[in-house]
Amino acid sequence: MKYIAPDYRIEAFTCPHCHTLAQMDTEHWGFNADYEHYGIPTSKCVIACRCRSCGRITIWMGQEYVYPTINPVEPNPDMPEAVRKLYDEAGSIYIQSPRAACALLRLAVDHLCSHLGATQSKIDDKIAALVKKGLSVEVQRALDIVRVVGNKAVHPGTIALDVDDVATANTLFNLINMIVDRMISEPKKIKELYASLPVSTQAAIDKRNQQQ
Description:
5 strands, 5-stranded antiparallel β-sheet, alpha+beta
């Protein structure tokens, strides 16, 4: 099913509660409603979208998304389990603490490099090892972006802290998904397509490759 990110300005999106692409009813709650259950100050104007499928609500405080906590980008289904756990944990806190989310995403990259076959202890060395194995320049740069921004979150005393915003966390979520797609999903699809060829065609290709 197509995923559409929650947005109070559109009529339908994927509900973060029931995960159904559904029509939404928008409600403007004003300044005087009781928001304590959702941890929202009563002085803030609140917009809520009620799902027509499950009846539960998604909430924005002004233009800022606040409830429920969700990953800003749906994780690639081919994402390794260890990486997915860190990704989801970062998704559960990125609104409340983007800096902590960036640190978790850097750790997710570390695990992803290990999954791809890098055995070095330092993430810099892992990336370098993957480059020697044929890692594309684009994916290498994506890995370095996550590593550097993540380091800013982990070591604020040595590198200027400039990751305390949701937009940066969103960028990192997208980058990790891109890396998984390029390094895991695409090879998997190619392997499946190759396996679907007639056996005689595969044999001819293998013979050609052996002669080169």
